[in-house]
């Protein structure tokens, strides 16, 4: 997996990967708007991507996915490690994320990589099956 830093020419690929990974896919326009922000940073290839926000010494994972045909082959871990390398070089102290409470695979991956749970947002996700809670997680780089 040779990762590129995400930029505007990637928006079509991002929207395609997002569509096959989430129930409520984001449009190319939504990705383009995010990429216009100076705080947005991410990495991708044709198998997956991770998109983050970086402000001062904190980062947040905005969205993150691997194509269904490429899962359980370590790409998710590789994307997270790429983010950790960047965060360490940029003296980031904490990385935050929200994940749907029933997304067991992602929660498992985040825990394996050292994230810990630090709260619940009640009804944060509006889904076709009704509202679902978010688990808030944090990775403390200075720990
Ligand atoms: C979550 C996601 C990015 C993981 O990507 P991936 O490339 O499959 O992850 P990896 O292969 O690097 O998995 C590494 C470890 O995470 C854990 N893991 C990953 N997926 C898992 C699953 N479905 N069930 C249980 N554990 C899982 C395992 O510990 C795994 O190690 P192992 O395969 O040696 O057991 C991918 O499943 C995905 O795109 N899901 C849909 C979108 C999504 O939920 N994104 C996260 C939103 S917060």
Strand percentage lies at 35-45%
Order of helices and strands: EHHEEEHEHEE
Ligands, ions, cofactors: coenzyme A
Number of helices: 4
Helix content: 25-40%
Main sheet: strands, sense, barrel? 7 strands, mixed
Integer-rounded radius of gyration: 15 Å
User: Low-confidence segments, ≥5 residues, pLDDT <50?
Assistant: none
Number of strands: 7
Overview of the molecule:
The chain is of the alpha+beta class. It has one domain: Aminopeptidase (3-Layer(aba) Sandwich). 29% of the residues lie in helices and 38% in strands. The protein contains four helices and seven strands, in the order E-H-H-E-E-E-H-E-H-E-E. The protein has a seven-stranded mixed β-sheet, with helices on both faces. Strand 3 and strand 4 form a beta hairpin. Helix 1 crosses helix 2. 24% of the residues are buried. The structure holds coenzyme A.
Main attributes?
Aminopeptidase; 143 residues; alpha+beta; binds coenzyme A
